[in-house]
Design brief:
The protein is of the alpha/beta class. It has nine helices and ten strands.
Length: 245
């Protein structure tokens, strides 16, 4: 479903210094798979997701989503995926119904009003259809953001820190939603720094350091490669080799 080959992206800082954010990254994600994208702050995770979502252009490399090339047909890629950033970005005066219906119209959904209501109800936000988003809890806002992302029935869902700012119950609910979307056939890339959450929902994971893939595989394969018994310890071992005993 997702094929990334030799992806590269360089930025120039305010001081004029070039910074390599993504440096030859390659990965493949299969249909219906939950793929965890892990890495320390500044490793290039969010930049990678934004390139996959065609929000920024790579300097080089290729991206294909469901066989569609992101460079030659970015609108075709956007029609097949939804990107959920870490920030909710919900207008505080608008209601969940208004926001999701609007995004449905933008995505070309026929008669988006009833579909928006159905999607919000499916995600547990049905009691807040007409509540201004500024009055919603953080957990409920995440549900609205997910409904907004899913309104056009995308094949691929990319989530950047989806449980950030949530309490224990909110985190559990979002993870159950992620697993449910995979069981419904969607391909999911999940970026998170909370290892125990990753362990619960992913099928495979890639660990990125300095814009490169440091390790990739199932949890069992990552643990075996690192010689560690927990993902926390494996992560530190792989991204901070200077700390190895």
């Amino acid at each position: 479903m997702i094929e990334v080959h030799d992806l590269r992206k360089k930025y120039v800082t305010a001081s004029g210094k070039p910074t390599v954010a993504v440096d030859g990254l390659s990965l493949v994600v299969q249909p219906g798979e939950v793929y965890g994208l892990l890495g320390p702050n500044g490793a290039g995770k969010t930049t990678t997701l934004k390139m996959l979502a065609t929000l920024i252009k790579p300097d080089s490399g290729t991206i294909r989503v469901d066989g569609v090339d992101a460079a030659t047909n970015p609108l075709g890629v956007r029609a097949r995926l939804a990107y959920v950033p870490a920030e909710a970005g919900l207008p505080p005066q608008l209601s969940p119904r208004e926001i999701v219906r609007l995004f449905g119209a933008i995505q070309g959904v026929s008669d988006p009003g009833p579909r928006a209501v159905a999607m919000l109800e499916r995600l547990g936000a049905g009691s807040y259809l007409n509540t201004p988003c500024g009055d919603l809890s953080t957990g409920m806002k995440r549900r609205v953001v997910l409904a907004r992302a899913l309104i056009h029935d995308p094949q691929v869902l990319m989530l950047d820190e989806p449980t950030d700012g949530l309490d224990v119950l909110g985190r559990r609910d979002v993870l159950e939603l992620v697993r449910g979307q995979a069981e419904a056939g969607r391909t999911i890339i999940l970026s998170s720094h909370i290892m125990i959450e990753v362990e619960r929902v992913v099928d495979r994971l890639g660990i990125v350091a300095h814009g490169r893939m440091a390790a990739e595989g199932t949890l069992a394969e990552i643990l075996a490669e690192s010689g560690k018994s927990t993902l926390d310890d494996a992560f530190v071992h792989l991204v901070h080799p200077e700390d190895r005993a």
